[in-house]
Design goal:
alpha/beta, Rossmann fold, six-stranded antiparallel beta sheet, single chain, 2 domains, globular, TATA-Binding Protein
Length: about 350
């Protein structure tokens, strides 16, 4: 994307003055292409920081829409976005374009899964993790290792946060560190333990600064450590990030179980909500107007250009044109699938 050269010194002057970046580093930043997977709490702040820093192209990927409960910690959204059920990727892109018109910003309302990952992540230099589930992270890890694309892990719940960079071929990958996802119900989530906006800010900021180092070509400055901290308990710990494990099923054996669909679920319980996402069939397409007509006699219907929401009996169904749906009112995937089949189709 062409940059307005005359405006660069004014907009980025304080960043250029910082010795770690300088004029040449800023030019590299302005050529960088970054994907952010998830536009919730972590992703909205990551995107804000990177767009303001002048990253050349930012691709925002999110499958969800804005709700009132998001506004406590998801800094890109407002009450109007929540009232009108705006998809997060669309609302985020719209707000960010008013912040920096020199950055190319894509907002993609889509689900990261084995059928979409090449299209969603192809062509970027760096990926930032702002997801809320392990299946998405392991899929992202498979793709990153296979394509030698750096990515930056980040997670938080309650007042606790963790982050570290993953550099394929140089450091351990996610499956070297956590070979498999913990069983459901074992680890706390924001639905069970809550989350502070301040821990989100710290994790996202640490991810963004590591991204800026990579974008500026300053790999030597990377913090190659697993950083863990609890802002409420006032603890901060760091562990050296190990090298790749030759026995790792992903980066060692080059077995991409999540990318090739051998691992990972078709349903995902959503963080902070009594809801389950049902993934539509690959290549599926729904006529939302036709569906609205079918469901209107059964309950209350809301519709915008991106999605349909129906309140029917105890369920809140949010349906997207690609066949994907979020079934609210249960955290049981079997129940969610049954509701999906009853009202949308198998």
């Amino acid at each position: 994307m062409a940059q307005a050269a005359a405006s660069v010194p004014d907009r980025y002057s304080r960043q250029i003055l910082f010795a770690g970046i300088g004029a040449e580093g800023q030019k590299a930043v302005m050529r960088a292409r970054v994907a952010i997977v998830g536009c919730g709490a972590l992703g909205s702040l990551q995107a804000t920081l990177l767009v303001r820093a002048g990253v050349g192209a930012v691709r925002l990927i999110d499958r969800d829409y804005v709700e009132e409960s998001n506004l406590q910690r998801q800094l890109l959204y407002d009450e109007h976005d929540a009232r009108t059920l705006q998809p997060k990727a669309v609302a985020a892109a719209r707000h960010l374009r008013t912040v920096n018109s020199q950055v190319s910003i894509e907002g993609l309302v889509d689900d990261l899964n084995p059928a979409t990952v090449d299209r969603l992540l192809g062509g970027v230099d760096l990926i930032l993790d702002a997801t809320d589930n392990f299946d998405a992270r392991y899929l992202l890890n498979d793709y990153a290792v296979k394509t030698a694309t750096p990515w930056i892990y980040g997670a938080c719940v309650g007042s606790y946060g963790m982050t570290f960079p993953i550099l394929p071929g140089e450091t351990a990958c996610l499956r070297c560190i956590f070979e498999s996802a913990p069983p459901p119900g074992v680890t706390p989530t924001c639905d069970t333990a809550g989350v502070l906006g301040s821990i989100v800010g710290v994790v996202a900021s640490l991810q963004a600064v590591e991204a800026l180092k990579l974008a500026a070509g300053r790999r030597a400055a990377l913090n190659r450590k697993i950083v863990m901290f609890d802002l409420w308990q006032n603890t901060w710990d760091e562990l050296a990030l190990p090298g790749a494990d030759p026995g790792c099923p992903c980066c060692g054996e080059r077995r991409f179980d999540y990318l090739e669909g051998r691992e990972g679920a078709e349903t995902t319980s959503l963080c902070g909500r009594d809801a389950v996402q049902i993934r539509g069939r690959a290549g599926a397409s729904l006529d939302l107007d036709e569906l609205a007509g079918r469901l209107a006699p059964l309950g209350r219907i809301e519709r915008n250009p991106f999605l349909l929401r129906a309140d029917i009996e105890a369920w809140r169904l949010t349906v997207f044109a690609d066949g994907r749906a979020i079934v609210g009112g249960t955290d049981d995937p079997a129940v969610a699938k049954s509701v999906y089949a009853r009202y949308i189709g198998s």
